[in-house]
């Protein structure tokens, strides 16, 4: 019986140590970079505001968003008035939903969807500041 309890205790301890915990809160604010299809964007997020721009395009696309956190690892982005004025082709009800699916000490993997395009974009975001 002692061997059984000891083995059970060790199994519980080991499963707890190997379980991956998401540390999404450390990525709520900061400066990040993400590369998708050869294009690198810089993301600056502070509180309920986010700005994004591509650094390797001639006409750098610059957008600003309102950020709303739904839970520790999920947030939505809605374009600001300035973004709608600069890019009138954006649907007026546009919402992007970002789910952080895994984290490391200085990066996270996200899965992004929107209510106007039937495509999921997965990418790694690296914290640079």
Ends: how far apart?
Answer: 53 Å
> Any low-confidence stretches, pLDDT <50, length ≥5?
1-20
CATH topology descriptor = Lipocalin
SS elements, strand count: 8
Total of DSSP H or I helical runs spanning 4+ residues? 2
DSSP helix fraction: 10-25%
Reported for the largest beta sheet, the result is: 8 strands, antiparallel, barrel
Rg from Cα: 19 Å
Q: How does the helix and strand content classify structurally?
A: alpha+beta
Helix-strand string: HEEEEEHEEE
Q: Give the CATH level 1 class.
A: Mainly Beta
The quaternary organization reads as single chain
Please state the average pLDDT score: 84
Secondary structure layout plus pairing:
Blueprint (H helix, E strand, L loop, with lengths): L1 H17 L11 E7 L2 E8 L2 E6 L7 E10 L2 E6 L1 H6 L9 E8 L3 E8 L6 E7 L2
